[in-house]
Amino acid sequence: NIQPPVEEIPIRLVNGSEWDQSD
Question: Where would I find the H helices in 1-23?
Fold first, then answer.
């Protein structure tokens, strides 16, 4: 999957599954 902007990375680490759905 594609990583979100740098400022959003901490959120991705916490909610990785949610980012997978958002992509």
Answer: 9-14, 16-22
Distance between CA atoms of residues 10 and 19, nearest Å: 11
First to last CA, the chain: 7
pLDDT digits (tens, 9 = 90+) for 1-23: 776 666 666 665 555 566 555 54
Given a contact cutoff of 8 angstroms between Cβ atoms, the answer to whether 1 and 19 are in contact is: yes
Sign of the alpha-carbon dihedral angle for 14, 16, 19, 23: positive
**The pLDDT value given to residue 20:** 59
